Amino acid sequence: MSWLDQLAENVDELRRAGRLQQNGRSAEALPILDGVLAVATDPTTRAYALVQRFGALINLGRIAELATAMTIADNAVREIPDAFLRGQMHAFAALGAHLERNLDRGVTHLVQASRSLAAVQEKDSETAWGWHDLAMAYSYLGFHGHALTAIEQARQVGAAAGLASEIFAAPGIRLRNAVSLDHQGDTDGCLRVLRDIDAELTRYVAIGADQMRPGSRAAYGYSLARRAALGEETEADAAQWLTGGGDSVRTRDLQHLGHVCLTMAAGRPQQALSMLDSVPVSAEILGAAEPARLRSICHAAAGDHAAAHAADRYAFRLAAQRIDRLRDGYLDGVAARLDAQETQRDPSRYGDETLTDPLTGLPNRRQLERYVATMLTRGERAAIGVCDLIGFTEVNARHGRHCGDLVLQRIAGVLNRVMRRGDFVARFAGDEFVVVLPGAGTAQAAEVSRRITAATNAENWQILVPGTPISLAAGWSEVGTNGRTLSAALAAAAANRLPTRPLSEMT
């Protein structure tokens, strides 16, 4: 029995919408899901439909709608104690975070999706598709080994449910692995993976496999075309496989870049360069470095080796930026774990009271007060900064509390990243944060304030809370100077707060 069979309403419509999505026809699935939501009253049916609708918006690349759709779907899923629904929701949320270029949030959803799907006992087709979607999310976020493990799990669960193995071939996973190797300078490794994809396609064609997903066509076609662009001939006709495949942004971009590769392989590099310039492609499909790498291959084929070298260096730099972000996330994770271990090891210092804000992971007001009291006892002084968000109530009213929580988490991450070693950051109350810079004076506080502004400028707030004006107000004071207490310093800093320009305009 399929997971869908347990639903009380609209099972046939949801099954039809699911088949359309699996065949790359999300634009047709969306109105069916909207129709179900217009009439369904069963909470589980509605939760499933909302999750699938969220997935359809991701496939169609409608990024501006993702935050609201995710909030609504997440709220519905929270009311349903079902591991599959949670796993599917988090897998889609990871893909949404990838489209919004929020790696930290994406990784969190990956972990949650994996744990939820692992807890599902039933070996049905819906669970298999959940593992498939998690594999896609792993792949897009750059965790290629985890993606291969998840897609193998999808195949095993799918086989138990009677599904053919080619349904979960997922050539796009290995394709992204291949181009990632090429972006990092391992072209031989890239070609080895592309040959394996070609061999798999040949095997499927030879056995007459007729259950291959339409969405796989573009990935197979691009694999063949990319191999041709690197100078290797293929038996299969890449142009044939670059046709069809559905209405997703992924298919559209793979088809366009595939034809760029074939034009290059046909000895027309200048035309290929013009094609690259004529149609922008999403940086999230094959990585931001892929167009730059193709540009390098075009310049090399045209004999402009200086331009090829410059494009190659740019591609490598784009690929390295992702690695740097992963490293930063790893360091942040280790730091958080060490802080938690320190709290557990020293109960006499922290007592039984909760000293950490559960939403942001930052110290809370109580821990701030203890920290400053200890510092003042030692006769030390510090700069105190008070930062809060203006317009935050409107965020909650328009986008929901989930988006408001994401804004607070994002600000907490920004503050944590820009602090100096030994600085202290706390969530004081609501949308108000306090930073403590031990031993710092006016000059050091001004530098940290500048770094906070620069870091918030780098965040894409418009995607997270579109159309909602938000501004940051920050004020500074000193504690420990002339006997000034924490309360007095906070009051003085709050009185000195000056708003910056709207964060939602900083993209």
TrEMBL record:
Residue ranges of every copy of the GGDEF domain listed in the record: 380-507
Annotated CDD domains: GGDEF
PROSITE patterns: GGDEF (PS50887)
InterPro entries: Diguanylate_Cyclase (IPR050469), GGDEF_dom (IPR000160), Nucleotide_cyclase (IPR029787), Rev_trsase/Diguanyl_cyclase (IPR043128), TPR-like_helical_dom_sf (IPR011990)
Entry superkingdom: Bacteria
Pfam families (UniProt xref): GGDEF
Protein name: GGDEF domain-containing protein
UniProt lineage: Bacteria, Bacillati, Actinomycetota, Actinomycetes, Micromonosporales
